[in-house]
Amino acid sequence: MPRKESITREYLFDAAFQMVREEGLEQVTARKLAARAGCSTQPIFRLYNNMEELWKELFEKGIEFFEEFYNRTPRYDSTPFVNLGVTYIRFAIEEHHLFRMLFLSQNRYNKSLYEIINGKMGAVGREIHRAKNEGCENAGQIFMKMWIFIHGAACMSTTGDYDLEMQDTIEILKNAYHGFVG
Q: What are phi and psi of 41, to 5 degrees?
């Protein structure tokens, strides 16, 4: 009778995803994952062809995690792009390793930054549509201006250089939107 496999793909993947959240993707090596999972590297390479395959799955899981984070974040304001901005900045603060993997990495596995942010639910598209419904004729351009501002604030938060309270962030985002719309 063959020996029962005690290390499953799901177990290894869950351990690897926790490592990404706690330490960053660059720390997910075969040896470190094996130590975390309490096994040798053999089960990793039995379940995955190589580490790149695992990293790609971790990246995809990170995208799903961000979308779930976005969907469960309370809506703070009715101004277009404010909730998206607040959520993105909060994600950078609360999940800075995942944020770096998804939004600051050069390797996004053929996903654009826009695709990741927009997600399956079309978050950016909905915000652009809302802005148009409020009379903004150049909503796509306004999104780009807002995005530069939002992404900059999120990046600053990963280094500890952004220390505004959420209410202050909401007000700044509202003011920026209204300033850009003019």
A: -75, -15
